[in-house]
Amino acid sequence: MLHFPTPYTCHAGMDDDTPDEVFAELKTTNLGIWGVAQIAAGTGLAVYAMWAGILQPGFRKVPLKLQVPYIPASKAQVQNVMTLLRGRKGGLVDLGSGDGRIVLEARRQGFAPAVGYELNPWLVRLAYFRAWRAGLHGKVLYRREDLWKVDLTECKNITVFLAPSVLSLLQEKLQTELPDDALVVAGRFPFPDWKPCRIEGHGVDRAWAYNMQAQRKDTLKKNGNLIVTNGDLDNELPKQKEST
How far apart are CA 181 and CA 173, in angstroms? Predict the structure, then answer.
């Protein structure tokens, strides 16, 4: 069950400004210290500085195959993810939520609760700042928590922007815990062993949707452990090899 802590507030926009555009604005506008901090945070420059100077040394303690660098999703990537989720209702969970922009857009689209799980404490703080700045105070939640320890048994809508090495390991957890009517949407990289039910976008902005019931059926068929009769997943029978 997902619960909101009462003291928190939140929301934020999807800033796609490049560093050059930010510096141009700095040259022509008297922003003050707080304004500069807002632009830096909104474009990810502040997070990159924290990553390079503070977080990266500690991050080396994480196994290499589980390391996921912070790369903010573009507007096109976020829109493609939301397109694949169109028509869905209820809550949404973003695993490895970064600066929180997927969670924020999901909340704008009516998903509630909208929750992001992120292990990096600085990115969690940035996500809450972006949420406050966008005006969704108290309407989204970011938790600093290891995604491998998150209970997903009641989650129906899941989004992930993770590296292929992590996705290959995450497949088993999702397939074990998620309900049959869950939909998983992956951005930037697809799950290596899963067959998507829909694909949206092109190139680096592409997103893939996976229906969990269909995925379980496909996995069981690949393993040779299921005979499907009228689409009924309850008819699980081991295949018998023909004797020769």
Answer: 16
DSSP β-bridge partners for residue 198: 209
- What Rg do the C-alpha atoms of the chain give, in angstroms? 20
* Per-residue pLDDT band at 59 (split at 50, 70, 90): very low
Name which of 213, 210, 242 is nearest 228 in CA terms.
213
- Tell me which H or E stretch contains 59: helix 56-59
Question: What is the b/e burial string over 141-168, where b = at least 16 CB atoms within 10 angstroms of the residue's CB?
Answer: bbbeeebeebebeebbbbbbbbbebbbe
Instruction: Count Cα atoms within 13 angstroms, Cβ side, for 168.
Output: 6
Evaluate whether 84 touches 65 at the Cβ level (below 8 Å): no
- DSSP letter (8 states) at residue 52: I
- If phi > 0 it is left, if psi is from -120 to 50 it is alpha, else beta; for residue 60 that is alpha
Q: Would you place residue 33 in the very low, low, confident or very high pLDDT band (cuts 50, 70, 90)?
A: low
What's the token pair of residue 163?
Answer: 């590296």
More reliable by pLDDT, 50 or 145: 145
Q: With 0.85 as the threshold, say if the pTM is over it.
A: no
* Nearest-10 Cα torsion for 232, 234, 238, 239: -10
DSSP class of 180: T
Span 67-71, average pLDDT = 68
Q: Which DSSP category does 55 fall into?
A: I
